[in-house]
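Narrative summary of target 7.
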Amino acid sequence: MTDGPSEWLDGIPYRLWRANQALNGHTVTAIEDLGVTVTQLGICVHLDELGHMSASDLARLFRLTPQSTTTALNHLERMGWVVRVPHPVHKRVIWYELTEAGLKGADEGRARVAVVNREVDEVLDADQQTVLRAALAALTSRFDGVEVPTSTMWPLLGQRRD
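Modeled conformation, tokenized:
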């Protein structure tokens, strides 16, 4: 045993993983009665903010297997939150879009996650938040190539809902 935490326990990857696990668990609790997972809610929010997306777009965006994405979309479709629509140009591409129920669900989920965001804001002061956001953006850009997704692979009608 050492006097302090090991390199493993004190490393940034481990600390990020622990923080992610804690915040994810807290978020799961906040949305559990909506009947969706954090990933399924994320899919709905991204469809709302980025517009129509294919299952492949969503799998790449969330770093999920195509099978996991299909499972999530099938659940959302059974709940009446998403529907499939054909791409107007690329007829073999199927887009997913939110229904009115899906828009309401995404809005309710956003409101609940906003409470979690405010709880995080209570832990970190404004300077810490600024530094953490910049650090997370730098890590994401370095290891993922892009910080935040801005569009679908199949543009045309995929525009943000105002």
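Strands lie at 53-54, 82-86, 94-98.
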